[in-house]
Amino acid sequence: MAKPRHFLTLMDLDPTELNAVLNRAIELKTIQAKGESEELFKNKVLGMIFEKSSTRTRVSFEAGMAQMGGHALFLSPRDTQLGRGEPIEDSARVLSRMVDVVMIRTFEHENVERFAQYSKVPIINALTDDFHPCQLLADMQTFLEHRGPIAGRTVAWVGDGNNMCQSYINAAQQWDFELRIACPEGFEPRQDLLEGARDRVTVVRTPQEAVKDSDLVVTDTWASMGQEDEKNTRERAFDGYQVNTELMSHAHSDALVMHCLPAYRGKEISAELLDDPDSVIWEEAENRLHAQKALVEFLLNHSR
Ligand code: CP
Ligand code: NVA
C-alpha cells in the first residue's frame, strides 16, 4: 500500500470527498435493503481496538464488514499486548502488516495520531476524548436524507462541549452550516477549535438562544466515558439544558433532533422526544452502518 488515507477527524477528507461518502452510504443503504449487497470487502480484515465500551460502533463496523464479505476482529486491551504496555508504535507496525484497515476507540486523541503515523493501512477514529467523526457521517447522512443539503442551515448544539460537539465544529466548516453551541461556563469546546471556525460557530449562554429558528438540534450525554465520577456535579451544572418539547418550540417547526446515543432519558433529552414516532434518532444510529461501509470503501480505494 502506498500512502494510507486516515480518518482521524472530519478534516482528513475534503468536502467533496465527504459528500461522496454520504451519497455512497445512501446508495449502500438501498442496496442492503434490496438484499443485493456485493462482497466488495472480500478477504478484507478490519482490526477494531476498543479501549472504551461500545454498542453501536462495534456492531455497525462488525456487521458492515460481514455484509460486505469481509471480516472484523474485536481487540480489547484486556486481551492484547496493548494492555500490557506494548507501545502504540509497535502495535501499529505489526497490526498493519496483517489487517487492511484499523478502527480505534481510545482516550487521548494523540494515540490515534501516533498509531496512524506508524501504520501502513488506513486508521479510523472510532471516538477519542476529542472527536467522534464516524458519528458525524451518520448524522450528516440522516439530515441529508430527511431535509436535503445542510449547507446554509442552522444547527444548535445543546450541552457539553465534548468530542461530539467538537466534531460538529469540524462539520460546520466542512459542510458550511452555522453552529450555535449552548453550554454552561466551564464546559466549552476547545478554544483553538472555536477560533479556527469563528465565521461559522458561536457560543451562546442559553439553550433557547442556540435553538431559536434552528433546523437541527443536537445533544449528547453530560458525562462522557471517562467522566463517570463527575456525573453528579455535571448534572447540577447542566440543569436547564435538557432538549425537550418546550425547547424545540423555539426551533423551526420541522427541525430535527439528534443524539448519538447512548442517552440518559430525562437528563440531556426527554423520553418524550426519544419516543416520538417521528424521531430520526434510531435511523441516525442505523446510519452508522451504512456511512462506515462507505467510509471503509473510500479509505481502501484511496490508499492504493
Ligand atoms: N454513538 C456511539 O458511538 O455509540 P456506542 O458508544 O454504543 O458505540
Ligand atoms: N460523548 C460521549 C459519546 C458516546 C458515543 C462519550 O464520549 O462517552
Features:
binds norvaline, alpha/beta, 304 residues, 2 domains, Rossmann fold, binds phosphoric acid mono(formamide)ester, 5-stranded parallel sheet
CATH class descriptor of the largest domain: Alpha Beta
Q: Report the order of strands and helices.
A: HEHEHEHEHEHEHEHEHHEHH
Order of strands in the sheet with the most strands?
7-6-5-8-9
Average pLDDT level: 97
What is the helix fraction of residues, given as a range?
Answer: 40-55%
| Known CATH architecture of the largest domain | 3-Layer(aba) Sandwich
**Per CATH, what is the topology of the largest domain?**
Rossmann fold
Number of contiguous helices: 12
Largest sheet: 5 strands, parallel
Overall radius of gyration = 19 Å
Report on this structure.
The chain is α/β, with parallel strands linked by helices and 304 residues long. The protein has twelve helices and nine strands. The chain binds phosphoric acid mono(formamide)ester and norvaline (NVA). The site of phosphoric acid mono(formamide)ester has 9 residues, from helix 2.
